[in-house]
# Entry
Amino acid sequence: MPVPVPLSLYVHFPWCVRKCPYCDFNSHAVRGEIPETDYIAALIRDLDFELRKHESRPLFSIFLGGGTPSLFSGKAVGCLLDACAKRLRFAPDIEITLEANPGTADAGNFCNYRAAGVNRLSIGVQSFNEKHLKALGRIHGPEDARRAVDLARRAGFTNINLDLMFALPEQTLSEAERDVRAACALAPEHLSYYHLTLEPHTEFHAHPPCLPDADLAWTLQEHGERILADHGYGQYEVSAYARTDRRCRHNLNYWEFGDYLGIGAGAHGKRTDTGGIERRARQRHPQRFLEHAGTPAGLQESRIVASAELPFEFCMNALRLRAGFRVAEFEQRTGLPGSVLHPALNNAHRHGLLEEDESRVRASALGWRHLNTLLTLFLPADVPPSAHADYGVKAAGQR
# Structure
């Protein structure tokens, strides 16, 4: 039986001002007014449905994601966090993140978010180039992004992440470098620097823009990483860079195969108990979620992960970390013996994709560049290569 693992909470807010053409997240363009009060009430019902009796683990992170959570008022966010605090024991140093769009930044709301208990903002900048922002369908401009960071600082936020993308339509090396330097000039504590990819069921996938080729994309990534390192941002995950002690605790819990409750339209959760590891997903459409939140009909999926899938599921997350993992951690988080990893580990070593010291397994320099290939070695033996994409394997540099 796996030993208890850390517990986080993810809350999904499904509305945006406008759907971006590259976005494959569960987000819906606002039509009319957002049903703010009804949605917060539905989230609380959903949390009550998700909670199990006698949950003793402290909640050590909350992530309010979307969509655009900053379309909701500080009062609504405060109501939700108060409800969470009444139902779950918060760790003394709990990390509470809210995603914000620079185009919806409001000084009053930022102050109210901080007063409600939010202590980390993640601001979706994506680029500081007006041309590229328009190509990405963003509703903000470069100065809006700078203003959003300034408003956040004035509201008392001392932990800010900026999302930044590279390999944008027709992006040059000098343009990508200027974006990274502009982000560093704002001195965020954390940066997410990730590769734009054409995801299925998006406008960009149906009508692909002209993107940099693979060689140029790799050059953009390498130059961006070098600039980030020069400014004191250490890479600890494929697309995550942070100053000392500012790594995102919530995302680390995903990558370290921790547990997380997921509430809200389309939210996913993972829970470990005596029956194994269960994954659950909510109804994706906001209206269906509102109608069924708090009932079994609010679930779109619920399944126990097969033991044969656990090596891949664990490694797909853990090998995204620069530090890799300990085999003992695999055993603790999955309940499986470390020996089940040996065939894949030996195969990866033969291809030069892994390096290992006395305590940790991590991707080698070659494996880091070809992470997709490395991860497929851990797939169940009966999965054909043509189905690899169904498991969500991503290459290094992608979000």
Summary: The chain has two domains: 7-253, 308-391.
